[in-house]
Amino acid sequence: MSVIFDRRSIRRYKDLPVSEKDLEGMLRAGMYAPSAGNERPWQFVVIRDREKLMKITEFHPFTQMLKEAPVAIVPCADMRDLKYDGDFWVQDMAACVENILLEGTARELGTCWCGVYPKENYVRELSALLGLPDYMVPFSVIAVGHPNESREVRERFNRSRVHFEKWSL
Questions:
Q1: Transmembrane stretches, by residue range (predicted)?
Q2: Is residue 166 one of the residues assigned to a domain?
């Protein structure tokens, strides 16, 4: 539970590389996320290229931390052969991203989840930058690095948001 409670969005990073072992552990955690019908629609693009990271900050205003982050993970949804109608893949991808963030915290790395889908311009620009085929949808950008800031951990549990059996005020 401490990993869940300690996870924070980190936007400042030290000038240190992220090891292959740590990256693989985070990707492995992502691939262990639950998915509808065990579909596992995820594919990943790992970006270390400084020029590509900077280009993302030009079209996605909420990714400015990539100017310092040594690496980004871009989870993408493979839209080929989805088993179910609807957007269950969105839930699958969100679970995948959360697993990556939690594993990063467990490895004492900082992460920041930057949404891409469903913003059409972010999807289009990122797809072009990464050369994604039409059937791949970039879901998010996850900045990863050694934190150069600490974020306060505050209590978030709020009993007034819990309702039993029916809605209550």
A1: none
A2: no
Quote the domain boundaries for residue 119.
Answer: 17-149
Distance CA 14, CA 110 (A): 10
CATH code, 138: 3.40.109.10
> Which residue type, as a one-letter code, is found at position 58?
E
Number of domain units in the chain:
1
Percent of the chain residues topping a pLDDT of 90: 92
At what angle are helices 50-59 and 120-130 packed, to 10 degrees? 160
The DSSP annotation for 127-159 comes to: HHHHT--TTEEE-EEEEEE-BSS---------G
Note whether residue 158 is domain-resident. Answer: no
Cα–Cα distance for residue pair 142/74, rounded to 1 Å: 6
Q: Which segments of the chain have a pLDDT < 50? A: none
Task: Give pLDDT tens digits for 22-43.
Answer: 999 999 999 999 999 999 999 9
CA distances to 10, 103, 109, 147 from 150, rounded to whole Å, are 8, 17, 11, 7
- Mean pLDDT across the chain: 96
